[in-house]
Amino acid sequence: MPRGLFITFEGLDGSGKTTQIKKLAAWMQKRGLSPVVTRQPGGTATGDRIRALLLDSGSAPVAPMAEMALMFADRAQAIAEVIEPALETGKIVLCDRFTDSTEAYQGGGRGLGPELVLALHRIVCGDLQPDLTLLLLPSLERSLERARRRNERQIEQQGPDENRFEQEQEAFFRRVWQAYRALAAREPDRVVLIEGNLTFDEVHEQVVEAVAERLTGLHAAV
Q1: CA–CA separation, 161 vs 56, rounded Å?
Q2: Largest Cα–Cα distance of the chain, in whole Å?
Q3: Domain definitions of the chain by residue range
Q4: pTM of the predicted model, to two decimals?
Q5: String of b and e for 63-93 (b: at least 16 CB within 10 Å)?
Q6: Is residue 38 within 8 Å of 82, Cβ to Cβ?
Q7: How far separated are the first and last CA of the chain, in Å rounded?
């Protein structure tokens, strides 16, 4: 059985990743494909506990190195429990965030640098790389506005929120944004950059175009 396709979505909170993953999954299902949809942190019982610790605004302060280590602990579990088993059976995996997020947020935002992140990725994740990464980069201001509105709604509806990162200053998010751009420039064959303040439908069109190309290549290889 041919190996499946590993597609990740990246971007700041508020970039529209969750919406675009749902739209892409629906697009695939209409075409007889049944993608496995997951997220990081989270996606497993262990990962969901790590997610609560990392993202809840009520969590105690977490040192940058500890934060990065927890991200990789979550990722190692997700690879073993969800991602690799799905890929081995030929399925398409759609993942909301992967190691690129750690490079942007902990490497860029926290100032730990990309080298340490990539070294840990090789050790902890066996250097597993996505076949395609869709990087959504609306303006920094648009992303932050959307993220804060979403978290306000979650607080009203559910109580606890996942707003710990949104409490950072704008300088932190500008470093994250710049780290993402540097990553896209470094890996243009894997990372498709979708930037600008586009509508959800305009982004979806670019997502589908990039994914359809990879699916054609996958079928041709088979």
Answers
A1: 6
A2: 50
A3: 5-221
A4: 0.91
A5: eeeebbebbbebbbbbbebbbbebbeeebbb
A6: yes
A7: 9
Beta bridge partners, 132, equal 7
Instruction: Kindly report, residue by residue over 46-59, the tens digit of the pLDDT.
Output: 999 999 889 877 77
Q: Can you tell me the distance from the alpha carbon of 184 to that of 190, in angstroms, rounded to the nearest whole number?
A: 8
CA distance linking residue 136 with residue 207, whole number of Å: 10
pLDDT at 154: 61
Shortest CA distance to 132 belongs to which of 42, 20, 48, 43? 20
Positions of the chain with pLDDT lower than 70, given as ranges:
147, 150-163, 166, 217-222
CA distance 95 to 107: 20
| Half-sphere exposure of residue 68: CA atoms within 13 angstroms, side-chain side | 25
Residue 5, SS3 per DSSP: strand
Radius of gyration (Cα) for the chain, nearest Å? Answer: 17
Two structure tokens written together for 155:
């607080």
Residue appearing with tokens 């007889």 = 32
Q: Is the backbone of residue 55 left (phi > 0), alpha (psi -120 to 50) or beta?
A: alpha
Q: CB within 8 A of 158, min separation 6: which ones? A: none
What is the spatial distance between Cα 4 and Cα 100, in angstroms, rounded to a whole number? 20
Q: Give CATH superfamily name and number for 5-221.
A: P-loop containing nucleotide triphosphate hydrolases (3.40.50.300)
- The per-residue pLDDT for 5 is 97
Amino acid identity, position 47 = G
